Amino acid sequence: MASGGDYAALERMISAVQEFARLPELAAPIAAQKVGEELHRTASAGQAPDGTAWAPRKKDGGRAMANAAKAIAVRAVGTVILILLRGPEVFHHFGAQGKEARRVIPSGTLPAKLGNAIRLGFVPPFRQRVKGGSK
User: For the whole model, what pTM was predicted?
Assistant: First the structure.
C-alpha cells in the first residue's frame, strides 16, 4: 500500500503535466519578442524575412528603406503572434503603384529563422515546468 507521501508526489506530477497545456500561452510573449528581433535584424540589413536582399533604390542605387525596421511591431495576443507593418513600408512590401515589392514581414511560407525564433519562445516555460516549478 502506498504512503501519503507517494500520493502527494503523484499529485505534484499530475499538476506539472497539466501545466504543459499552458505552454502556447506562456511561450507567445517570448516568441513574439524573438520574432521581432529577427524581423528588425533582417529589415535593418535591407533584407526580406527569408534573408534575400532588397533591390536597391532606382534613383541612386542606394539601400532602399533604411528605416524599415522602425515600421515593424510584433506582439503576442493570447497564443497568436501579431506582426504589424505601418507607414509607407506597407506600399513597398506589396509593391503598390508599380513599385518593386520588397518584403518586410513574412508572407506565405514562414522562413526557418522565424520558425526557430518561435520555437525558442517555448524553451523557458518548458524548462520551468520540467523542473517542477510553475509561474
Answer: 0.83
